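Final report, results section. Input specification for complex C-07:
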Amino acid sequence: MKERLAIPNLGNYTVALAAMVDGMGAEPWWSTYTHDHAMSLGIAAAPESVCLPFKAHLGHFLEADEAGVENAMMVNSIGACRLNYYRGMLDDTLKDMGRKIRLFGLGFDGFKPPVFRYFDPPIIPLLRAVFLGIEKIRTIDTIEIQTAFTRARELNTGETSLLTEHCLSELCGIDTKKRVQVFHKTVRERFKAIAIDKNRDPLRVGLIGEVSLLRDRQLNRNLEQILGHRGVETKNFFLLGGEIGNNFGISMGYKQQTARQLALVARPYLGCEVGGHARDSVAHTIHCAREGFDAMVHVCPTGCMPEVSIRPILRKVSEDMNIPVLELSFDEHTCALGVITRVEAFLDILQNRRRKGLTKAKSRGTS
Amino acid sequence: MKKIGIISLSDRKSGFQTGHASTRRKTNILLKGPKNVKIGIPRAFYYHSYPGLWECFFRRLGHEPVVSPPSTQATLHKASAQTETEGCLPQKLFDGHVLSLIGKVDAVFVARIISIVKKYNCCPRFGALLDATRAGIARGVPLIPIEINETVAPLSKTLMKLARTTLGADTKTAKLAVKEAIEAMAQHHREEARRQREQTPGKRYLLLGHPYTLHDHFIADPMIKKMAQLQVPVELMSFAGSRHIKPGDILWCVFNQMYHKLHELDTQTYAGVIQISTFNCGADSMMADRFRRVCRQKGVPYMLLMMDEHTGKAGLDTRLEAFVDSLSWQKTGKAS
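Structure output:
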C-alpha cells in the first residue's frame, strides 16, 4: 500500500498539487480549504501571536496525523517574511506534541529535495506527473477567471459556484495530460451555458494581499463568493499559473506582469522588495487604478509583517490615484458576518461613487 | 531661517535596480549651499542598531544632528492617532519620534534597511520603513533617505554615497566623516562591553531583545529598573561585532545572534533568560518558541515578557518578582 502524504492548502490549486504528488508514488491527503476542525486544532497548538496561515497549516497537518497520515510536505521560502520559518516551527511543534507524522521540506539542502529522497520516485512517471500538474494548474486558472466573470453576472445566484465545484471535482478524476487539455477546452463552454445578464456592468474589484488568505476560502471567509453574489466581478491577483510562469520564466497560461515589471510600476511608491507579495500589492493597485477598476480589497492576516507595513503606502496610492482600498485583516476570530457587513458598506460607497461618476476616471497626475 | 528645497525626496538611484531608467526623478536639490542643516534622527530602530554612528557622521559633515528625546508614553500617545493601527509597538514609537521631530528640524533622516549583516536580512518592516514613512506619517516633510544593504554594499560605501550625493559633501570630508563615524560606533560598542564586564561579576540574568527594544526608554527601562530594585544583576544582549556572525538557518541577523548566544549559554554564569517582546512583533512570535525550546534543553529558566501600549507597571513587577523569587527558591531549595 502506498504511503500517504499530506500537502499544504493552496485553495483550488491543491487539486493540481495532489496530481503531482500522486505521480511521485505517494497517496496525497489534501483539501481545498482548511476545515473547521483543523483550524481549532491549529489554534490550540500554535503560539498565540503567529500569523493565521501558520495556524491553518499546523491544524491541517494535525488533522492529517489524526487521520493516520504518515508524511507531510511543506513549502520553503527564502524571503524576509515569517513563511521562511514555517517548516522548522511546524516540525518542532509536531515533535513536541509527540505526533508521528514526518514533515518534509522542499529543498535547499542538496540537489534532491528531501521529500524526493524519501519517496525516490522514478524519473519518467514523476515528470509525467509534473506536466500533468502544470496542465491542471492552467485549467484551474481558467476556471478561476471564468468563475469570477460569470458569478458577477449570473441570473440565478449560486449556479456558478456549483459549476466551479463540479469542474474541480471532475478535474480531480482526470489522470492524463491529454484528457486535461480536452477538458480545459470545454471549461469555457460550460461557464457560457450559465444564464447571465449581459447588460449588467458589474463593479470591478481587485483582490490583493497575502496568498493563503487570497486562496483559502476558510481563511478569507469566502470573500470571493461574498463579493460575487453581490454582483461584483473580482480579479484575484494570485493565479498560480501566472505566478509560476513569471517567476521561473516558463510560459504557463495566463500572462501576468513579471516581477520586474511590477517592481517598475511600484517604484515611485515603494523602492525595494519588502517580502511576501507586498510590492506586488502596491503595483497591482497602481495598475488597477489606471485600468479603471472600481476598488481594491487588500486582505492579509492580522499582523502580517510585509502587508501591514505597506498599508500607509497603499493609502497614499489610493488618494493619489483615486481608487478606494478596503483593508481587511483576518484572524481566527474574524466572523463571516463581520466581513459581509464591511463589504456591503464598502459596495454601497462604490455604487454611490459610480452614480456620481467618480470612478472610471483615468489616473490623474503622474506617477 | 535657512532655506532648503526638497532634499532629493526620491533618491531613485539608490536601492533596487530594475535596469530601467528611473520613471520619475525629482530635481536633486543638494544641500550644498547652507551648512549646518538641522537633521532629525528618530530615537528608534536604526538609531539603536548603529549606536553613536549617526550623530558623529552628520556632525562631521557640518550639520547639526537632533536626536528625538527618549520615548515615553507621550511619544506613543502622539503617534497613536496617526500611525498604522496594526503595526508593532516599536513601529508606533518610531512614528511618534518622527512626529516629535517634525517642525523642529529641517529634514528627517529615515533609513531603509534591507540587511545589517551580509547575506542576512531584517524584518520586512525595515524595508518598507522609508516609503511608508514618506507616504504616511511624514508626508510632505523633507527626508534624508539612505538604503543600507550590506549584501550589496558595505556600510562605509553606503555612508559615502549619502555624504557625496544627498548631503553634497566633498570627497575628503566625506571620507573623514565616514571613518570617524564608524570608529565612534566601535568605541560605543567597546564601552558597552566594558561596562557589562564591570557591572556583572556574579550569576546574572540575560535580557534578550532587539537593540531597539533593549535600549528603548519606554519598553525595557521599567524592567531594567525593576531588576535593579530586586538587586539581581542583568546583562543586556549585546549585538556588538555583528559583522561576523556564525552561520545558521535563521536569516534574520538579530535572531541568529540571539540563537547562538543561547546555544552557547553558560549555565553557571546565567541564572535565567528573560525575553522582551513587543506586541505584534511578527519575528518574535516565530522565534520565541524556538528560544524557549533551546533554553529548555539547556535547563535555563526562560520567561517571555510582552510589552504593549497598555502594559501596566504592576503586572510587570509581579511577573519579574515571581520569576526571580522562584529561581532563588530553586537555588536555596526552599520549595521543592
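Residues 120 and 251 of chain B are 5 Å apart (CA to CA). The first strand of chain B starts at residue 38 and ends at 41. This concludes the modelling results for the funded period.
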